[in-house]
Every structure is written in C-alpha cells, then in structure tokens.
Amino acid sequence: MSDTAAPPATPEVCDFVVFGGTGDLSLRKLLPALYRRELEGGLPEDTRIIGVSRADLDDEAYRAVVRDALASHVERSDLYDGAVDRLLSRLHHVPMEFDDLAQWHLLHGLLKDRPRVEEAVTVFYLAVAPSAFGLICDQLDEVGLVSERSRVVMEKPIGHDLASSQQVNDAVGRVFAESQVFRIDHYLGKESVQNLLVTRFANTFLEPLWNSRWVDHVQITVAESLGVGERGAYYDRAGALRDMVQNHLLQLLCLVAMEPPTYIGRETVRDEKLKVLQALKPMTPADVDRDTVRGTYGEGLVEGQPVRSYADDLGEAAPESGSTTETFVALRTEVQNWRWAGVPFYLRTGKRLPRRTSEIVVVFKAPPHHMFPHSEGSAEPNRLHIQVQPDEGMRLTMTAKEPGPGGYRLRPVSLDLSYADTFDQRSPDAYERLIMDVVKGNATLFMRRDEIEAAWSWAEPILDRWTTAPDRPRRYAAGTSGPTAATALIERDGRSWQEIE
C-alpha cells in the first residue's frame, strides 16, 4: 500500500499483549488509555488485552489490580461501571519469567487458541526495561508468535548512548522488520504537537514567515514541578539530557524546523525530521562548554510547599562520592540549513521548576523601523506560543493600540486558541491516540531507527564532554527557573527566556 493511500482501518480482531502488565507504566498510563478507548467505542470489537509479568496472578486477580488502577488514574466522573466491566472482561494475565522458555507455552496457547486467529493483529508492548527487549523478541520468535500481522512497541529509553541504542535496535530488528517496530514518544501524540503540523502546512499566512528572514529565535521548554520521586535509581543513571532532551525536546524541534513534506504520511514526515537531526550543529567540546548549562535542584519551595534536594530524594540510591547527574539542562543549538541558518534554538528542561509546563515559543524579529516615535510603550516582537501541556493550545502575541484618545499607547495583546474551549470536547490522551495508531499500523507519529541514532549522534559529544569536564552541575533552588547560568546563556545573545512562573 502506498503512503498516499487511505489511512489503515481499525482491524476487527486484536490481541494487545503488555509485557510488564503490572508495572507503573501499564497501570498508570496504558490501561487507563485503553479504558478510555473502550468507553468511547474505539477498541476493535474482538479485542483481548493480555498482561504478562512475573506476578503470580490469575485472570481474576489481575482484573482486581486493574480495577484499582482505573480508580486511581481515571477521573471519577469518567468511570462507568458498564465500560469498566467491558474492559475487565477483555483482560487476561500470564505469569512468566521471560528467560524461561518453558513458561511461554501459556502465552502461545492463549494467542493461538482463539477464534479468527488468522485475522488477529497482535501488538506486543514492551513496557519493561530495554535490557529485556531482545530477550522477549527472541522468545516470541522461538515459540512462533511473530507473523506479518505482529507489531512491537518500544518504550524509551532505547539505550543510554549510540552504541547501546544500536544494540537494542539490532536485537529487536533480528525478529521484527522496521515497518513492524513502533518506538513511542508520547509527546508526539499530544493534540497541540500534531496541530503544529496543521498550523504550519494548512495555513498559507504563516509558512512564508517560517524562516531565518523573519524568525529571530525559537525556545522549547519542558518544565516539571515534580522531583525524581521513585525513579531515582533510574534517573541518576540517565539524567535530563538522556531522559528528555535526546528524545522529547529534539522531536519537538524537528516538527518546528522540518521542511514541508509532499503530504503528511507514514514516511514523509519521518524523512523530514531526520533531515533536521542531521542538520543540527555538531557540538565540539568548546561548544559544549559555551552553549550548555546543567544543574541539579536543591531544597526549596514548589507551589508553596517545601521540597527536598535531589541528593535527599535519591536517598540510598545516591553514589557514595555524590551524584553528578543533571536534573536541568539548557542549551543553544542551530539547524544548519538554508531555512534556518543563523537562527538559534534554545532548549531547556528541568525538574523542580516552578510549575509543570511544556511550550514552544517562536519569536519573530522586531519591526525594522519604529513608526510611532511619540508613543507610549513599544512594539514588541510577535511571538507564537504553542502550549503542549498542561492546557493544550496556541497563543499569538501581537502589538495593538490601547483604546482611548491622546496618542498611541502600545501594548502586547494575545489571540488565543484553547482546544478545550474552541472544540468543546475532550482531547484524547497521547497514549490513547498512539495505541490506536499502533493497532491500525500507522507509524507517522513514531520514531524511526535512523532518527534515534541521529539524535544520539548529536547528543553523545555533550555527554562525553560533561564526563571529562571538571565542573559539576550548578545547584539551583527548587521552585526557581534553574541555574542563573541558564539565564546568562540566552541573555548574552540579547534575548530572554519566556517566564515559567
């Protein structure tokens, strides 16, 4: 089927197998997303959901666990007994040690002993540590559960550097063709991120301005008010660059900077994103020292409540010599191509910042000539704010005359688009959309292997330099916007960050 053909239809028969079916991701995100699809009638009619884990649970015990999870992670107003019961009736659980091939017969029997087995699309969702990806795929192949109607979903992190990423992808690629592999980044499932493509490519007024002639710079911020929580052991091995920048922030950058594809299709969008990653300015050690800032949060106040430092949050997971892991990153980069030459892209992300928000801000150049010499106020550069979370929408900041006689009083005003207010309907959670795209076989919003490796190739020199640099991450108080060095990073260019407060 060509990429311009009609989008694939929802199959009638589906088995959705979740490895790590009792884990945090499954209970907090995947199963609530599947419940909402059940509630709105979006699941294929003949769907089974099979949790696989080490827990010694039969089907009824697993259904009880999931019922409790739905009560905790779905709004009470959205819980309906009929929909909950329908979802629970689809659930099965297979207890298994992944490395014991003899135990795989239970899963084999469950998947093969069903009506219309030859029509079934089987999704294998790897909600487990990446170290188990290759083992699980090998076992699936060994017991004969992989077919052309199979799909595999990989959660991040896909490796901790380029070499380990290649090892993970090689292990999965020995069993599944690239067209069957869905590397998920939930940011790409958010309504505002997808609407960025529509805003750019379905509206003629904006695209002629989307270049270095008119755009001064771009800011991408992903701020979290929470600390590391129970993820301390994992997070201290990863850090903010691996956990957020190498995947989420670079994917957002790609959607901002990519060239218009011929059409929005499975491979055309991913082809253009890859070109952006390949055009990112390579980071030399001198570039890393000058254009990156890393920090770690100390004690402070977040939303009026006192919180502990990163070291205290790590507790027993902290290294004896003290952690050098960054919980905050700010950096400056450029996309070295014809459209964006000379336009800086500023990226920042961090934990224990003033509030949770993810936003893209495209700042246009100031008017070339001051037309109102005796006015009060000033004509500020136009800004397009794309709010990714928590309240998805867009805001265009313009300069307007304040009403009244006696001259020109200039002030910035906003043209606002709130998806919730404009469309008067609930926006599906990112996982809801992405799960259904997997079921349908639509890979447009998923990362291709060459994208992952291009992102690691760009990020790795930063990690290498930080390993050898004598300085440690700069400390910032929880509840602030990060280290003062991050402010200096952008202000030395005569610019300033969009406020997080």
TrEMBL record:
Active-site residues annotated for this sequence: 248 (proton acceptor)
Chain positions recorded as NADP(+) binding sites: 54, 97-98, 156
EC class name: oxidoreductase
Gene3D superfamilies: Dihydrodipicolinate Reductase, domain 2, NAD(P)-binding Rossmann-like Domain
Species annotation: Nocardioides aquaticus
Pathway annotation: Carbohydrate degradation; pentose phosphate pathway; D-ribulose 5-phosphate from D-glucose 6-phosphate (oxidative stage): step 1/3
Reaction equations catalysed: D-glucose 6-phosphate + NADP(+) = 6-phospho-D-glucono-1,5-lactone + NADPH + H(+)
Residues engaged in binding substrate: 186, 190, 224, 243, 351
Key words of the record: Carbohydrate metabolism, Glucose metabolism, NADP, Oxidoreductase
Family affiliation: Belongs to the glucose-6-phosphate dehydrogenase family.
Keyword Metal-binding: no
Function, as annotated: Catalyzes the oxidation of glucose 6-phosphate to 6-phosphogluconolactone.
InterPro entries per the UniProt record, alphabetical: G6P_DH (IPR001282), G6P_DH_AS (IPR019796), G6P_DH_C (IPR022675), G6P_DH_NAD-bd (IPR022674), NAD(P)-bd_dom_sf (IPR036291)
Transcription listed as a keyword: no
Domain Glucose-6-phosphate dehydrogenase NAD-binding: 17-195
GO-annotated molecular function: glucose-6-phosphate dehydrogenase activity
Protein name (record): Glucose-6-phosphate 1-dehydrogenase
Domain Glucose-6-phosphate dehydrogenase C-terminal as annotated: residue spans: 197-498
UniProt-listed NCBIfam families: zwf
EC number: 1.1.1.49
